[in-house]
Write a structure and sequence with these properties.
With 206 residues, the chain is α/β, with parallel strands linked by helices. It is built from 8 helices and 8 strands; from the N terminus they run ααββααβααββαββαβ. The structure holds zinc ion (ZN).
């Protein structure tokens, strides 16, 4: 973003001027590779959804602070769990959020990951077929309806390698399940998924 170059850059965590994430906050960032399953799909998170990680994610999404994306990618690559070549399938933003932000943060993250590791490919095979409401505001049944058919697969794209779905944050997993279902519906199998942060079921909602 242009503003990043015009204004002194404050660290999102400690507000010290100089970098989007200063070196002391970067080295103190809590990372832990956490493997877990969502129904039959296995995946990984790289940190929990805590004060630090939520500030990173929210600043990218709400204030377009895209200078933070490479940091997020770097954190994930430090513990990258796949030895083999994988093709990341970023879960697309809803059309409204895309228009509002002017970018798709999960796609930016996927590209940053691919820049840092030659065994990572990116395919935008998933697209949002319509808008969806913020899942946080909905009950379990409404969440399911909200996501039913929310994603389509671009069948004109050829994909190679094991597919790994990518999202920034996983809370209930409903979005990830819907994206996985969209692939399954056209006969594609997702090898797994990766999310930067996992909110986890035990964390009380605020
Ligand atoms: Zn800092």
């Amino acid at each position: 973003m242009l503003l990043d170059y015009l204004l002194p850059t404050p660290c999102v965590l400690c507000l010290k001027t100089g970098s989007a994430l200063c070196s002391s906050c970067e080295s103190g960032f809590e990372l832990s590779l956490h493997p877990f399953r969502l129904d039959q799909i296995s995946g990984f998170s790289f940190t929990s959804y805590n004060d630090q990680s939520s500030k990173l994610v929210q600043n990218i999404k709400e204030t377009s602070y895209t200078a933070l994306v490479p940091f997020m990618a770097k954190f994930m690559l430090q513990n990258w769990p796949y030895q083999e070549e994988v093709t990341l399938v970023p879960i697309p933003s809803s059309p409204t959020n895309y228009r509002k932000r002017g970018f798709d943060h999960t796609l930016l993250l996927a590209r940053a990951l691919a820049r840092g590791n030659q065994s990572i490919l990116v395919s935008q095979i998933l697209k949002s077929s319509r808008d969806r409401k913020d899942q946080v505001l909905l009950g379990p049944k409404e969440r399911e309806d909200n996501l039913n058919g929310a994603f389509r697969v671009r069948t004109n794209l050829r994909v190679q390698g094991p597919l790994v779905l990518l999202d920034d944050v996983l809370t209930t997993g409903a979005t990830m399940r819907a994206a996985h279902q969209a692939l399954t519906d056209i006969g594609l199998e997702a090898h797994g998924f990766c999310v930067f942060a996992h909110a986890g079921p035990r964390k009380p909602s605020k």
